[in-house]
Description:
By secondary structure, the chain is an alpha+beta fold. It contains five helices and six strands. A hairpin with a 4-residue loop joins strand 4 and strand 5.
Amino acid sequence: MTKFTITEDFPKNEIEFDHRFSDPKACYQYLFDQKWPDGFTCKKCGHTKYWVSARNLYICTQCEHTHSLTAGTIMDSTKSPITYLSNAMWWFTTRKSGINATNLKELLGFGSYGTAWTWLQKLRRCTIRQGVINYPGALKWMNFSSAAKNLAKETVVLRAKQSSWLL
């Protein structure tokens, strides 16, 4: 098994996290640094100069190709503020007892349980390993993903239990 080590300055507590990621600009800067650690490079033409649109899209000054910091992530196509997403990820990954949709709804002030539930499902999909995970008992979880469509499909397969009365 591969050992995972955090190599950056990870916040030690919620106060540090709130200080660092309370501003949307700080959240976008963090995503920028993760996507382009050596600075912006257009994936279409390789140019390094860009301008930022009002919707936080990075546009190459040479070929005008549009780049999004959230494209291909669980934050893709969301209309919620990036600070909400950052907080949800923090709570999901750091709370020892976990977090449920009702907690997330209350913490972020959502009007809908469904929104909180959908976000948690996206976060949970990120933590499922590829392949098959066997659990004791009758459930076998399988995770299939299509890289072309960036869709994750999960299937629950029930193992048939052999019973003597079914003979």
